[in-house]
């Protein structure tokens, strides 16, 4: 890809950009910033960690957006789908409890295509954690895919399934009108959640609450 005039390239460090110029460019989908990013990282190994942090944060953001094009572009630029940290929301930048990975974000979104782009690896990734994240999505196909890769539904110390726990906890929220009308939830509204529960049970998931 061609390089634009130097005047419009993001500077490597800039107070006005809060020292994240490439992250800002990628967030705005400035594609011509990709090559300067790669070149700058090679030319300045002392900045490698800071630059890697910027591209990884963007990958987490676009993974949740299920933006397949920018997932591919950022992976080409060296983004790590397994690194843990914040996304582009600066409010949680210093809160480790809110840290995540691109793979977890794609699973939470329920995008099978985005997860496949990030190439989960059973030998490197905790598939049970990915399965648990996928339970908040509406994608039975994603759950099937993770189970096929080898995700174990029963990963709790007591032999139960955290994914099933989460799915059961989330079930009442499948039909939010019940909280307003105080009526029974419709089977139609619950069909997605029930299908995910059924798939987990077929895979051998066990319900063993932590609090007896």
For the biggest sheet, the summary is:
none
What is the number of strand segments? 0
H/I helix tally: 11
Question: What portion of residues is helical?
Answer: 40-55%
Q: What is the end-to-end distance?
A: 60 Å
**Please, what is the average pLDDT?**
84
Radius of gyration: 20 Å
pLDDT < 50 stretches: 1-17
Shape assignment: elongated
Structural class: mainly alpha
Number of domain modules:
2
Estimate what percentage of residues fall within beta strands. Answer: under 5%
The run of helices and strands is: HHHHHHHHHHH
Write a concise synopsis of the structure shown:
Helices cover 50% and strands 0% of the residues.
Account of the 3D structure:
This protein is mostly helical and 212 residues long. The protein folds into two domains: 109 residues, no CATH class; 93 residues, no CATH class. The chain is 50% helix and 0% strand. α5 packs antiparallel against α6, α7 packs antiparallel against α8 and α9 runs antiparallel to α11. The chain is elongated, with a radius of gyration of 20 Å.
Please write out the topology.
Layout: H1 21-27, H2 34-43, H3 48-65, H4 68-76, H5 102-109, H6 112-118, H7 127-134, H8 140-149, H9 162-170, H10 177-181, H11 187-202
Helix pairs in contact: 1-3, 3-4, 3-5, 4-6, 5-6, 5-7, 7-8, 7-9, 9-11
Primary descriptors:
mainly alpha, 212 residues, elongated, 0% strand, 2 domains
């Amino acid at each position: 890809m061609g390089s634009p005039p130097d005047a419009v390239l993001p500077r490597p460090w800039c107070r006005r950009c809060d020292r994240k110029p490439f992250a800002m460019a990628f967030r705005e989908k400035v594609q011509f910033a990709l090559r300067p990013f790669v070149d700058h990282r090679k030319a300045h190994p002392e900045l490698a960690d800071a630059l890697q942090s910027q591209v990884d944060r963007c990958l987490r953001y676009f993974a949740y957006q299920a933006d397949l094009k920018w997932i591919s572009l950022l992976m080409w630029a060296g983004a790590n789908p397994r690194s843990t940290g914040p996304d582009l929301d600066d409010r949680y930048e210093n809160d480790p409890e809110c840290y995540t990975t691109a793979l977890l974000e794609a699973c939470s979104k329920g995008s099978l295509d985005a997860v496949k782009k990030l190439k989960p690896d059973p030998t490197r990734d905790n598939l049970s954690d990915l399965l648990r994240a996928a339970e908040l999505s509406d994608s039975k196909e994603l759950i099937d895919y993770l189970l096929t890769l080898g995700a174990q539904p029963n990963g709790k110390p007591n032999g139960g399934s955290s994914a099933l726990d989460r799915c059961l906890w989330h079930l009442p929220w499948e039909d939010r009108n019940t909280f307003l009308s105080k009526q029974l939830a419709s089977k139609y509204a619950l069909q997605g959640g029930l299908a995910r529960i059924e798939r987990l049970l077929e895979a051998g998931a066990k319900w063993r609450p932590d609090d007896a």
